Amino acid sequence: MRRSFRAGAVAMIAAAALLTAGCSTGSGTGSAEQNTDPNQKVELTYWAWAPNLDKVVDLWNEKNPNIHVTVNKQDGGDPAITKLLTAVNAGSGAPDLIQAEYQKIPTLVAADALVDLADTEAKETKDNFPEGVWNSVTLGGEALYAVPQDTGPMAFYYRADIFEGLGLAVPTTWDEYAVAAKTIHDADPEAYLGTFSSNDAGWFTGMAQQAGASWWGIDGDAWSVKIAEEPTEKVAGYWGGLVEQGTIDNKPMYTPEWNAALNSGKQVGWLSAAWAPGVLAGNAGATAGKWKVAPMPQWDAAKPATGNWGGSSTAVTTQSKNVAAAARFATWLNTSPEAVDALVKVSNIYPADTEGAKTALTAAPEFFSNQPDFYDVIGKAAQNVGSFNYGPNVNVAFNAYNDQFAKAAQAKSRSAFLEAVDSMQQVTVEDLKKTGFTVK
After folding, report:
1. Where are the CATH 3.40.190.10 domain residues in the chain?
2. Which of 97, 291, 362, 415 has CA 20 to 30 A from 243's CA?
3. What is the model's pLDDT at position 37?
4. Residues 6 or more apart from 406 whose CB is under 8 A from it?
């Protein structure tokens, strides 16, 4: 199995942690070399939660009778990962493939749950994806732990009618965003350009990513944690300042109150991801045609950047006895024009495959039918997603975000936001050490 120095370090650290925690690894070797001819007749199981994915897989099965794939629908996110780790630890019951969110990959690698696909045809897909997305499945090294499937490049969604009514230009920098937020709130004390959501760690991660943050890294034989550093502190201080001034809201997203504000025009903007049209259509359908999308405001207009909020990949587990066949399927599913087109139309995802997105997404979502260039804006954003390294205890860091920033949002204090970043750093580092990882 080919590994870079950094990827090898991940494996060594993972092994140490597993020994410390008293866990056993899966029965697979984690190497593509264990497999027989991928043209043999094999049965593969695929745990996934994307809607109607079985219909996309039917296209594969019709044309590839020797490699039959069965989709087992799972609950998304943490439940599927917990179920997989339990099966890997038990040495049986794991699928051949799993839909894995990008932030879960380091956890799965540390548990010896994923095969390195660098010696399979999946390695040839690198040029299909933006660099930042590819980094998410390689952990910054030469090992390849999954094939990217969908992604969530972030953008700025705003009520065009309200902007026009106030004579506001769309903000292109964060300074301009702050001015627009004040103008909107001054014009209507019940209206806000946005809200700081203390229950959406993925959202905040994307904001920090845009500013250049990368919260975990490998330093020799140790993990490093870089949450409490300048990029994240800049983002926290900025939003803390707006909350302190009262020019944006401090209430969480996805609440009845937030939905009502979207419908009434009291939430004038939303910094969200490529999948936002579906949320807006479902929660504020009466406002269709009133919204537009633009690039995220920039910290440095000369260096366009954006963050990522969400997205998943197709990984092969270490218990699969048919890794080469599984890698062939994962490659087809996420890079072939036929499959990517079906993923868009049947599963309603924003594909990670750059050319596939251009080909499959030629018309704006119905909710944004007033903006024909909708996917041009999103496509450019996708190319500007920076690299961001996750670590093996993402859940701990995200829970710390929820806890600490909930307090900061209620305090409405910029200093409290900065203290929350320090607390996230401390909690994350202490957990890594407690779990048995070496931390620098």
Report:
1. 5-152+308-383, 154-307+389-435
2. 291
3. 59
4. 198, 199
